[in-house]
Amino acid sequence: MKTLEFDRFLEETREERLQVVVRGQTFTCPLRLPALVPLRMARAQQMENDLRRETEYRNLVFEAADQLFGPREMDRICALGLSAQEVALLIQKVFEAISGREEPEGDELCDEDSRRCVRGGKA
Fold first, then answer.
1. Can you tell me the distance from the alpha carbon of 102 to that of 98, in angstroms, rounded to the nearest whole number?
2. Which residue has the higher pLDDT, 36 or 77?
3. Could you tell me if residue 100 is left (phi over 0), alpha (psi between -120 and 50 degrees) or otherwise beta?
4. What's the rounded Cα separation, in Å, for the pair 6 and 20?
5. Where are the beta strands (DSSP E) in the chain?
6. Cα(58)–Cα(54) distance, rounded to whole angstroms?
7. Dihedrals φ, ψ of 117, to 5°?
8. Which residues are paired to 22 by β-bridges?
9. pLDDT-derived band at 57, boundaries 50, 70, 90
């Protein structure tokens, strides 16, 4: 019988970690997207009710944050006084860094409605 040792494969390919500095404190997360993110996004896109779809996207940001940093670290990040929009922007920037679409440092980052901008690429 053949056996696929996927756990061993994952151990051997231990990923690099991304350092994220938030209000002077350093946090780390895996340099890969949790499978939950594209899975839940695909499911949300299938929803016909716009309100349910938007709620699903909003919830997904915080679930993805927990998946990336872990609940305890996300509690620490949130305790730094970030707003919900800033946490969403942070997770967006982490996704971009992981996927290789990170903007060059020094660019201005804005939330979806451009009401609040953060200079220097730091949330």
1. 8
2. 77
3. left
4. 29
5. 17-22, 25-30, 109-110, 117-118
6. 6
7. -120, 150
8. 25
9. confident
